[in-house]
Amino acid sequence: MMTNKTLWKAAGLSDDDLDRPIIGIANSFNEMVPGHTNLRRVAEQVKNGVYRGGGTPVEFGVIACCDGVATGHIGNNYVLPSRDNIADSIEIQARAHKLDGLVLLGSCDKIVPGMLMAAARLDIPCIFVAGGCTPGGAPFAHKTKSDSTTITEALGLWQTGKCTKEDIQNLITVSCPTCGSCQFMGTANTMCCQAEALGLSLTGSALIPAPYNERYRDALRSGEKIVELVKRGITSRKIMTKEALVNSIKVLMAVGGSTNAVIHTCAIAYELGFPAEEIMEAFDRISDEIPHIAKVSPASNTYDCEDLYKAGGIPEVMKVIRDHLDLSVMTVTGRTMGENIDSYVNMYAPNPEIIRPLDNPHSTLGGLAIMRGNLAPDTGVAKPAAIAEEARNFTGTAICFDSEEDCTEAVRNQMIKPGHVVVIRYEGPKGGPGMREMYQPLKMLYGQGLNKTTALITDGRFSGTNNGCFVGHISPEAAAGGPIALVEDGDQITINVYTKELTLHVSDEELARRKENWHYEPKKLTGYLARYAKLAKSADQGGVLE
Predict the structure, then answer these.
(1) Of 112, 189, 110, which is closest to residue 148 (Cα–Cα)?
(2) Among 22, 31, 59, 65, which one is most buried in terms of CB atoms within 10 A?
(3) Does CATH number 3.40.50.2300 belong to domain 20-133+180-343?
(4) Residues classed as catalytic
């Protein structure tokens, strides 16, 4: 239409620009999120690539929240809900301006899945480009390299007299030497790995560290490639098939990905029209099929995601498990996944201490486990990759808290003792609202040396960096009247990740009696959180908005 062209030209585009494919650059750069501060330069390289490929790039902004900066205050309630806002806003911008293709620029926890949800929803040519991880920090305590979360562990060490306040102040400065997503296989890097395993990112790109020059060459190639995808009509749903989604789950098992990948994969599947129950079943089945073969922090105190990149990254992991993958799926390279990994050349040396063969895994258990039982009638999620072997079948005594804050205060006061199963509830999608991460109390327990002798369960979430015996995403949540709301101090609870069972040792009759006396008073909310609490589905349904 002539009006459209007039307004495009008012924005500075030429007739020649408008004769080319219009490629949206969804850039989540901001100056608050360390994982995203390099995305301005990444975007420039993407735009150069789009021009070289024969397209016209048009950049727009996308919000981004840092889980770490949002920790410890109301900001944490907004982080998961921001994912759906990101998906909505990208959909609106792309549809309103009838973009021919999209390059999605992000790095961190909820931004990446929000962008993948948008790609699935829009079904236009899309490529995801990560900003990259930050290299490891200075050595600290038992860690060869510190990271963004070592400071919380250090607080636990300080409380038990194992480090000084000066040590903590120094650690704040040296644990994150550059910008980039956090160093470990947390949610940010997990989701970037999933994007690559889905075929929505260029081969080998997920874990390129932020400061590496290869990160910018990858951005340039991605800009060129998106124009090719537009010209060939390869849209996101031709790549994000059910087979590709299953491939990505297998990769997540192999690398010991974040528990948050489960809720995000269900949300992506929702956008693709796949039932969440099928995704949960796939996670459950695959955890018995694919062992944990690639071990980095938080499962390792020696290696991080930079080391995994140098060991061959996701292509090398996929080569090891190739007999379990559908290698015929299409990818953004315009070639199949099999062709991609066969042609990938690792410029560094392989490291068998990080990536092991299938017959000699770090653990025969998959990196993630779907838990069920009378305490989680629908599901819960555990991470065997981050649980010490001696704590994988744990029975203990419940000590209950109705908020993260109450629990954190108890941990600070060293009220949690060996043999306790900490229960934090009313932190689910509706109850929180926003399903906060129980990162702080679990990290502090680790720092206090209680990670092998205590456990923590919740209807909230965990950070991908958490380690210890924990189960999150318990559904139904407490606010919906789930059994976790009925647990009392002193109850016995068993967490068995071998059998994937979460058991409350209380009779059905007693639980029925407690349910009769149970009452829940929803929090008084306004703004976006009120809307999210009203519309959010349960964790086992991806926590998406109805």
Answers:
(1) 189
(2) 65
(3) yes
(4) 463
